[in-house]
């Protein structure tokens, strides 16, 4: 019962220390522990039992984590739902997982009128606070580490999100491996800028395991994040690179007190070298890269502050880092054989952090799992002699131009190096002569100088890598994790 053990340990060691803070209140480890156990009994009294699902539909706030821990304490599975999805998308997830109850903010629940009315619980209304408020009650059950604890949905950059079933053993393995190398202490204060409905929330659970305080934001804005770091004297902040870019651009970044920051944790998308260089220069703190995947338990690779380049020495890309203790990683070729040292292959992962499988989808589970038990990430990369993983691109995004591989991430990186380019996305489009050619979608700050951009590309890329077509758009579509949603680009 990893999450129960986490609560028991921190209540015992740090009873009066703040565990969680949000826009409305804060709770100590002792208060968090008590509320989770009362809420667990309240859910049990409603008929929620072992193996049932508890869906959660809310912005980030303390009650969300209370519900996650309470469901886990009675052997139920918590199912975070993305409140930014359209009503039919949420309804589809609910139909697939069939939750016993849906817990959510009243305003958010009203946006989804087709959810089962009899199974709704508004977490910001008195009835939720009273749930399990009575004294006594039946003893809570024992829960095994191998029991499923959550159904976490993927970011769905290419289609319908898949439900990833993880057990408590997965959360424990990733947390202990991560903490062994990142080594945060109980004095750490983590401002979490990422949504708790995504697999990235495992990062927050991991820092809670160390006894850290987690500060939750109801939604990201650069001003809100900067204010939270200053107000809570945060030592760590967890975000995606686009969020960091927006924070640096905010006027308040020059006046906010960020002097307590020790580390900026970033992940979900490549860090643009120019953003890292500016942030490292201005913030003067360490940076930690987080490379993870919901299917393998979340953050399974990290690059620590000591391995990051100096601000003026950033190369073409920053390595993802080394695998955490307890997990194993390889790069393999198309036949599943381990790639030669330094050769590009698909990154595969094995270890106790890996998911149990996709929810009620054995065919999809089999498609991502190799016969000898490795989980395929779909990411292409190479592993250097020091064990550092260098990511190249997503395997499904690689453009095959007349037999030559073009990696969209490389072209996107070069495009963003141009001072007039604010953002860029690259995809492959059919071509009668070459099979596929790169097409770029570019966001600029004004009227684009097309000739200057072509000259820039010619100076940095081989001819076969240069986009044959460039379309200027107002915004590159990204999901809340900062990943480009290429299926939403104009056709």
From TrEMBL:
Q: Which UniProt keywords apply?
A: Ligase
**Source organism, top-level taxon:** Bacteria
AMP-dependent synthetase/ligase domain segment(s): 8-359
MF terms in GO = acid-thiol ligase activity
Every copy of the AMP-binding enzyme C-terminal domain together lies at 410-483
The record, for Pfam families, names:
AMP-binding, AMP-binding_C
What PANTHER family does the annotation carry? LONG-CHAIN-FATTY-ACID--COA LIGASE, NONRIBOSOMAL PEPTIDE SYNTHASE PES1 (EUROFUNG)-RELATED
Q: What is this protein called?
A: 2-succinylbenzoate--CoA ligase
Which species? Answer: Actinacidiphila cocklensis
What does the record give as the organism's lineage? Answer: Bacteria, Bacillati, Actinomycetota, Actinomycetes, Kitasatosporales
